[in-house]
Amino acid sequence: MSKKERLSTEAYKGVRDFYPEEQALLNYLTSVMRSVVERVGYVEYHASVLESAELYRAKGAENEELTNEQTYTFLDRGGREVTLRPEMTPTVARMVAAKRRELGFPLRLYSIPNVFRYERPQKGRLREHWQLNVDLFGSRSLYADAEIIGVAYGIMRAFGAKESDFEIRLGSRNALEKLDMELINREVSSENRKKIRVLLDKKGKMSEGERQKELEQLANGPFEITETADIVEIRRILSDLGVTNATFDPNIVRGFDYYTGMIFEVFDTHPSNNRSLFGGGRYDNLTALFDDEPTPGVGFGMGDVTLRDFLAVRGLTPPYRPPTHVYVAVATPELVGGAWALAAELRQQGVNAALDFGERKLGDQLKTASKHKIPYLIVVGQNEIASSNFAVRNLETGEEKTLAREQLAAFFLNL
Ligand code: HAM
Known about the structure:
This protein has helices at residues 20-39, 64-69, 89-98, 100-103, 142-158, 173-185, 190-201, 208-218, 229-240, 304-313, 336-348, 362-371, 382-387, 408-413, and strands at 43-44, 50-52, 72-75, 81-84, 107-111, 114-116, 128-137, 166-172, 246-248, 262-268, 276-283, 297-303, 326-330, 353-355, 376-380, 389-394, 400-404. By secondary structure, it is α+β, with helices and mostly antiparallel strands. Strands 1, 5, 6, 7, 8, 9, 10, 11 and 12 form a 9-stranded mixed β-sheet that branches. Strands 14-13-15-16-17 form a 5-stranded mixed β-sheet, with helices on both faces. The chain has a 3-stranded antiparallel β-sheet with strand order 2-4-3, with no helix packed on it. The structure holds histidyl-adenosine monophosphate (HAM). The site of histidyl-adenosine monophosphate (HAM) has 24 residues, from strand 7, strand 11, strand 12 and helix 10.
């Protein structure tokens, strides 16, 4: 094939290939998430990436920017409009509404889906990411709001973050509604009211003096957004839980129309990664899209991209370790059968053993084991097979230990 005809090896723009090291990190992230949410009684659900496009256009579910500019929407072969889910909340609301009578409330659900958004790829923003969704349905209690924020806090701590590493900023849709009323009284146009919300959200992303000036201009004068009673109470419950890094921030807006009460975002406090890591809030009417009797909900979505950056700047990313315990190499090609038998024996006893087929020189076999970061190596040679004694080499330290064939499995499993 000529050079021109060859296909590019690059992944589609804005999405990632997960080679084993990246996949192992994703698995680590999700295993920590799972253990924290399951401790609080959340159970896992799942759904297809394909949803009917109308789900994101419905009044109340909508986020204009997301729906109009950021969805992957296409016609299927039957002429139906299909969207790759850009978020999980409409899906889980649909699922809850569909089985409201059977599900039992309060209902605690979590899922770790991949979601798709046609965004301009940049730091912390890609076109596909994995997103933990934690949602609690059927409760209006402020303890439910506090539980959700407590879970978010618990996940951060479980990754090794200190309280000073992140900040939970609470906002209030009720406070924003109140502001809207005031602005309507001041005859501020709906267009300008929208611009005000966008500007509130820009805190930290532009000069603060300029932002304040523009806000005042748009609002026909200065204004204040004051903390609502529900947020005060949620913060009290959280401080009883020992959470001291939750504050009220009038600039928290969140992009989705469906939020109705408390909203929150978790920020990284690191100077070189000072950004929102994830967020969520209360949405009491979303299931009304499907059902006469709406079920209140509260939850959040936490993406893997921003989380990876958070862990990286703090050195909290664990080093890669493959699941493989040992690499079985072959001194000369004709011994592959003997090595095969040894590997099979080890596997039978629960050891994860990868076998080299002896097609490359021993030095290259060793390099493969090192490239794969496999911690131990056994070289199967004539003498080893004859004596049933094998040298186990630690590939990190170079140390070697000779063990009898029947001692090998215990050695690897007792590590
Ligand atoms: P969201 O703020 O749009 O909320 O997304 C939640 C999180 O997903 C973000 O804070 C970020 O960590 C991650 N994320 C979003 N877009 C991208 C992207 N393009 N690239 C990388 N990461 C991204 C929601 O989606 C709500 N449905 C969350 C929710 C659940 N609210 C209640 N329950």
